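Data availability (excerpt). The following record was deposited with the supplementary files.
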Amino acid sequence: MKRIAILTSGGDAPGMNAAVRAVTRKAIYEGMEVYGINYGYAGLVAGDIRKLDVSDVGDIIQRGGTVLYSARYPEFATEEGQLKGIEQLKKFGIEGLVVIGGDGSYHGALALTKHGYPTVGIPGTIDNDIPGTDYTIGFDTASNTVLEAVDKLRDTATSHVRTFIIEVMGRDAGDIALWAGVAAGADYIVIPEREFDIKEIAAKISKSRERGKRHCLIMVAEGVMSGQEFKDLLSQEGDFHERVSVLGHVVRGGAPSVRDRVLASKFGWKAVELLKEGKGGLCVGIRNEEIIASDIIDTLENQKHHPDLTLYTMNNEITF
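Predicted structure:
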């Protein structure tokens, strides 16, 4: 394989640029030509494709977002859209493709794989909801961004003896709420993977107030409900001086953490290794700190992401 391309798709995640850099420089090291596709699958179909050199990916490892840009393109779910994309890849003589993104991006890569086009997926999403890997690019940075904000909210909550309901991103997964909640010492964590009892939460807040605790932090994953909806439920159980803070798209931005930069670099390096060997239809990941490659069809069609629910149990037992 002598010519490959890279695209980033879906929501941006800190560390995507580190992955783009690793793919580009590893491929050039191996004697390949590398092309960047702007704006994800939309740019692929439009032919918005440019050759990348070593200097094109210099000074980007520390930057958030994606230098290849991103866009939603639901039309790629159709066979017509997929064949148009393959036509563009053939036009540029591109023999393999690296797709960096989340669930929707992976399904695009899956479609190309089923058409016989060599594709390797790299999990890049703050949500950490991709099967076949313990962690995705961007998850660590996003969790730390949430933690920094929650630590500051704690000061205000304590000063005014308030209950802060903090809504965090994560789509249908509760990983960000779970990890940041444990790290922040949240009094309660509400995630899609576990049912909650609003009366139990209200009783817990009342008990902590009785013993003199001056703040309460409740992490709510957006996949359950909005922070405002949760506040409305809680207020029916009593007056807990509730305030809602929504940590929206700010969580996606910022310089990637050490963990995300290294993970992205490992993923990018591994993706090129696979394509160099002529392998496609795969997605890279990390399991028990080992970089792995899995069949993308089996991964998406037969596996599911499961958060570490021992963290949920632990938090309930040590935070009160």
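Summary of structural features: The first helix runs from residue 16 to 29.
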